TrEMBL record:
Keywords: Membrane, Transmembrane, Transmembrane helix. The chain crosses the membrane at residues 37-57, 69-94, 139-165. It comes from Aquimarina aggregata. This is DUF4199 domain-containing protein. It comes from the Bacteria. The lineage of its organism: Bacteria, Pseudomonadati, Bacteroidota, Flavobacteriia, Flavobacteriales.
Length: 173
């Protein structure tokens, strides 16, 4: 199981990093909402290695059987590797590759809510954002948010994969 988790975890991690970097650099001129969709799509595509890792374990390492619990565990462990890699990549991106990203995104978001909310609601929302700005500018918080995002999506994919791929030993008659 360990080899399968490491192999598919590293494949998932590599693909999530490549897709994220491609999205960041190739999609630089795109609207933030489109970039966000591309980012989530990249996470989902990369986390398909969870399904393939569980399937490989079941079919090639465990004689065609795997319990729901074991399949879920394998999926979560693969996801943890991808989530860790993506969290680290996000920190590198924000700290070294594009240190202005948070300020640019914040300014964009402020403009967006200013255009969509009435003045009174905008002032309330702006006050909330200002109080949270320091927290979300923290590098550890950025790591945690990206790690947790991948972990949640990966957990859902692990759950679905475990349901689809579980196979019990045939009952002897």
């Amino acid at each position: 199981m360990k080899k399968v988790v490491i192999k598919y975890g590293l494949l998932s991690a590599a693909s999530i990093c490549v897709l994220a970097l491609a999205g960041w650099f190739l999609g630089k001129s795109l609207d933030y909402s489109i970039q966000e969709v591309i980012g989530y799509a990249g996470m989902i595509i990369s986390l398909l290695f969870v399904f393939f890792g569980i399937k490989f374990y079941r079919d090639n390492e465990n004689g065609g059987i795997v319990s729901f619990g074991k399949a879920l565990l394998i999926g979560i462990l693969i996801t943890l590797i991808a989530a860790l890699a993506f969290g680290i990549l996000d920190v590198i991106y924000i700290k070294y590759i594009n240190p202005d990203f948070m300020a640019e995104y914040y300014a964009h978001y402020i403009q967006e809510i200013k255009n969509t909310l009435p003045e009174a609601e905008f002032k309330i929302e702006l006050a909330k954002l200002e109080s949270q700005k320091e927290l979300f500018s923290n590098i550890f918080m950025n790591f945690f948010l990206m790690f947790a995002t991948v972990l949640i999506i990966g957990f859902i994919i692990s759950l679905i994969s475990a349901v689809l791929l579980q196979r019990k030993p045939a009952a002897d008659n």
